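Bug #77: duplicate submission created two jobs. Keeping one. Sequence:
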Amino acid sequence: QVQLVESGGGLVQAGGSLRLSCAGSGRTFTTSYMGWFRQAAPGKERELVAGITGWSGQYTSYADSVKGRFTISRDNVKNTVYLQMNSLKPEDTAVYYCAAAKVYSSDSGEYDYWGQGTQVTVSS
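Kept job's structure:
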């Protein structure tokens, strides 16, 4: 089992930066594929914005909407996954969740474990 806790959200002006952290625990955290999702409003679909493979995090993937602005990374010594978000836009406003899966998937239903979410609000 994997437990996940996000932090680092907040209010920022357009063009600003935030770094989200996802602290994990559990035997399989190191080997899990980790994704950052966002949900713009209750009832809307959760969108995968970035993902990183397990172990060394050799492979990463990004949604087109965040490529070149967001960077995902992981530190398995600290059991933490990060999402560095630069050049933020108002349309990035959402609740951001980290999630763990056995392998890569863009389908939120394939992720077994979720954090509680952290709110990111970008003002124009």
